[in-house]
Amino acid sequence: MLRVFFVALLSLVIALTSAAAGRETGERSGLAAMPIEELMGVEVSTVLGASRYEQRISDAPASISIITSQDIKRYGYRTMADVLNSVPGLYVTYDRNYHYLGAGGFLRQGDYNTRMLLLVDGHRMNNNIYDTAAVGNDLILDIDLVDRVEVIRGPGSSLYGSNAFFGVINVITKGASHVNGLELSAEGGSSDANKQRATFGRAFGNGLEMVLSATRYHSRGQSLYYKEYDSPATNSGRSDGGDYEGYSSFFTNVKMAGLDVQAAYGSRTKGIPTGAWGTVFNDDRTKSIDAQGYIDVRYHRAFRDNQDLSVRVFYDYYRYDGKYLFDYPPLTINRDLAVGKWWGTEAFYKTRIGDRHTVIAGLEYRDNLLQQQKNYDDSPYAVYLDDDRGSYSLGAYAQGEFTVTERILLNLGARYDHYKDFSGRLNPRAALIWNPLERTTVKFIYGEAYRIPNAYELYYSDGNVTQGANPGLDPETIRTYELVLEKYVKEFRLCLSGFYYDVENLISQQTEAAGVMVFANTGRAEGRGIQFEMERKWRNGLAGKLSYSFQEVTSNQDGVEFANFPKHLVKFNAFGPIIRNWLGLGVEIQYASSQRNLNGTRDGGYTLVNATLLSEKTFRDLDLSFSVYNVLDKKYSNPGSREHVQSDIGQDGRTFRLKATYRF
Amino acid sequence: MKTLLLIAVIWGLALTVQPACLHAQAGQFGEYDVKAVFMANFFKFVEWPAPVREYRICIYGSDPFGQSMRTVEGMKVRGKMLEVRRPASLRALGDCHALFISSSERRRIHTLLEAVRGMDILTVGDTEGYAQEGVMVNFYIEASKVKFEINLNSVRSSRLTVSSQLLKLGRMVGDE
Predict the structure, then answer these.
(1) Which of A418, A446, B25, B58 is placed for a possible disulfide with B96 were both Cys, Cβ 3.0 to 4.6 Å?
(2) Residue A407's closest CA among B26, B125, B108, B21?
(3) Under CATH, which number does the domain A43-663 receive?
(4) Which of A35, A44, A406 is nearest residue B34 as measured by Cβ atoms?
């Protein structure tokens, strides 16, 4: 551990000294030489998701990280999970079925990213059965279509209602002019992983903007070994051919005169190679199929005196089809089927009061037309669960940003939600944003958030074989205090933050006496942490960032120790040009200290190194990249959930990817 | 709490090593660098009625650029040196070619625009509503990119000639 600190400190000192040196030489930045057309494309730091309108990061009532499409290219990110793993304080674990996102040291086994709200261009992606915020290949948006990912830490229920518990991930897709033409992309890598994408985007003269995209991916997966299955009856612990994954997805966005129509659909199949839930080991018939789609229609209008009004109507569809091969005997396929359908509408209004205050207000109605869960055996046909639900919710929110003095901003907001099956709740957020010195911002933030139990936690049961229902669950709530210090120096950003939170009525999966897993409200949890971040861009194109975060979660119950959080996370990213603008190298180093597994053992922690060689405009509009992930071939694992016999699940060793993209 | 101490040390170090940064605004990473370069670029697209020896950018009100203006200060645009000034009073505005009016002047924007009328000055701002008030070019931010709106009436009622190339890049707004 000390070594890591030392390295972090050393690189910081080097960076700072070279920062001072860079200032003295006073070389002209590349920016100054840019023609005006190019300037129009330079990104500056703003955030859209923190207040539902675009504002400077330093004015936003939250601690924020932004990952751009440039980062995605430079560091060879393949999925949203890769992106989020590079964000200070976040960590993603993988059990070779799904990716699980931890924030603030919090990641509960057995649920599916229910405590982070995931938005794509403002559209809520968490489904209405499991509340899943999909961050792996089950996210139906191809990562290549992402323009920016805003990670807004802290409770966001005062704007977004349920699920915005530890934060909001707001994904902004590339606009038509960003794509500008026909783009074809192909990639291939380890385990025969291959992906093809075609995207067309154009901003027409008459104001019509259009993006159309389709992607297809398939990977054979890895051959895996699990010591827990090391017996002759289970292929000596070897799982061959069960780790496959494939998906296809479609995305389209059409904008014209204030009207914005977006539609997306994707379906992903993943083999489950771990023998989860007691399924037959080393048989490729056990798999998960997730499909999701939506259509979202928005109309936005700006009035005089800086007033904005927008309305939105959406329809969403989600389907999970799990196929599990059990040996009862005889060998039988057990099916888990979940179908969710919901629609909703939103109205949003923003105005400026006088010169100094910005006020927004909104209304949101969501109707869960269908929340269906079934569990049955294919043949002989036997039904264990057939649960049909519907529900609705209505939310109203308001937020004001008040300029108290030239140096002090006050941000106050609250949202009230009414649910069909749960009592209503008001979630407030208050932030005091103070600029004690120029280019220095201090934020004090208090916020509350909550999450209502989802259909899966409430009603799912496979006939009490492995899992039971608990319709009596109550919502869980959180109170968070944060202190954020941000400092901007010419090409430098420094950020120091600390947080404390207190969760009540935590919904958590428990194993009952009979060995059946049930979700229950399990009391309180407290978390605290501290985080340091620095980022720098040099004028010659070199860019780097370094972060360290410490986090700790404790329970008020005696003898309960929370699993699945690394106390220390260190992340380092650097990109530098090798041959002018033509060839560059991106290097990423991630350290996570050991995590406690559910059975009380600890994994060993890990240090991962990823590297990407990127050549932009190699030949005309051809971009080429070559990435190596886990360069050091480090053997490491992530804690597994209760459905696994394994306490921890082994992760990929060294893998590579070659990618080519051509724009016509 | 060894880690806390460490963080405090790092933070203290960071603060002390960078004392020269205290002049710029609590702006963003690069936001005002970009705006400064934009302003330098404007000289390529605007013609003044009288011959110009060197281009002068004036910043009026509390200065949000700070160090960022150094990027363009002394730079040559169309063979002419670029100068930056921060006049303290309205009377000193006569020498300016482009005048950036800070958002601190929001309350007196009318008086200011009245004072510079007829002086052949390209007025620039970055405050919501400035263009509607009569400022010729006003920056705004959209999708994390710096863009600008142009009040064509203000431009036309001056003796400046703005090239159509620049007009094409901006968003047109009318008077209130």
Answers:
(1) B58
(2) B26
(3) 2.40.170.20
(4) A44
